Amino acid sequence: MIFEYKLNNIDNIAKELINSFKNKIVLFSGDMGSGKTTIISSIVNILGTNVKVSSPTFSIVNEYNIDEGSIYHFDFYRLKNSNEALDLGIYEYLNSGNWNFIEWGEKIQELLNEEFTTVNIKVISKGKRLLELKQ
Fold first, then answer.
1. H or E segment at 128?
2. pLDDT of amino acid 50
3. Positions in the chain whose pLDDT score sits under 70
């Protein structure tokens, strides 16, 4: 599926994505500044948290609580190799049954032995994005 959207319409795209996801492990890719954290923030808020979502660039993972459990938001930009994700206990998160939104997920893709969804975001112009969803 391909979506073209403007940033002021991001909540509508986030709702469409949530309704389209076939599993709870979602890898987000795109250039720096393409809007990975922005779309994840909208998704997390729609799923039921009202906290301010920020990129876990330095903490690696942020946890958000919702009525149905937890949402784990990862940013693996700073990972040197997939072993660092293993050290974090990535499999415990992935096998938890909770939502896992992973920025720079291509850095750990070889660790994934179960189904996952990929979301690739490209900047078309200022304020406009092209999003490709693969399941």
1. strand 128-134
2. 84
3. none
